[in-house]
């Protein structure tokens, strides 16, 4: 079974609709992240959480909100979807190694199309 | 702005060697990581350099020079399946004491027959 799962894998919605993308992990990690990726571009951080009571904005948080329901669950919401939020969304978890390096483990991604 | 710089695309033939450079300007970071992402897939961890020098893992090697804030990923004996995007990343602790991971924009490696 996958360590980091995302649902749904694909979603088509209309402008103005509220949608939620869900992420679950079985790795027992405290750190969780939401990224978006647009064609030909790198990963841009939307929100991140270092434990259940910690939520932080990333570089592109406008138009998004998150909820950390438990250590294993981190949900991303688009309150009122707009077409330029069409993208590939990744959830990730991470742990910190002895040498201070951080390894991130990504979910399979959710393809979102906003019409 | 983007703190890590890497080339946008590299093209090479099967069997060749490709070096992807990554430069970063910071006074404090925990090593350099590399991730691979195939088209339509999720990024996956490749390597991490905590210390200066070369780390080898099979056909892939990664190098770090802290004094130069520079590193590279070396792909040897290129295979068609190596066609993917490669991202460098650092955990910067100068602007954020928690040190979240920052990614470069990625280098698209295209392997041709």
What is the fold's blueprint, element by element?
The complex is a heterodimer of chains A (about 120) and B (about 110).
Chain A: E1 4-7, E2 10-13, E3 19-25, E4 31-37, E5 43-51, E6 54-57, E7 64-70, E8 73-78, E9 87-96, E10 102-106, E11 110-114
Parallel strand pairs in A: 2-11
Antiparallel strand pairs in A: 1-3, 3-8, 4-5, 4-9, 5-6, 7-8, 9-10, 9-11
Chain B: E1 4-5, E2 9-13, E3 18-24, E4 29-37, E5 44-49, E6 53-57, E7 60-65, E8 70-75, E9 84-92, E10 101-103, E11 107-112
Parallel strand pairs in B: 2-11
Antiparallel strand pairs in B: 1-3, 3-8, 4-5, 4-9, 6-7, 7-8, 9-10, 9-11
Textual characterization of the structure:
- The complex is a heterodimer of chains A (115) and B (113).
- With 115 residues, chain A is mainly β.
- Chain A has no helices and eleven strands.
- In chain A, strand 4 (31-37) and strand 5 form a beta hairpin.
- Chain A starts with a strand and ends with a strand.
- By secondary structure, chain B is an all-beta fold.
- Chain B is 0% helix and 57% strand.
- In chain B, the strands form two sheets. In chain B, strands 2, 4, 5, 9, 10 and 11 form a six-stranded mixed β-sheet that branches. In chain B, strands 1-3-8-7-6 form a five-stranded antiparallel β-sheet, with no helix packed on it.
- The relative contact order of chain B is 0.34.
- The interface between A and B is medium-sized, with 22 and 24 residues.
- Low confidence ranges of chain B: none
Task: Estimate the helix proportion of chain B, in percent.
Answer: under 10%
Average pLDDT over all residues of chain A: 93
The best one-word shape of chain A is: globular
- First CA to last CA of chain B: what distance? 36 Å
Subunit organisation of the chains: heterodimer
Q: What is the CA–CA distance across the termini of chain A?
A: 33 Å
Largest interface: A-B, 22 and 24 residues
Radius of gyration of chain A: 14 Å
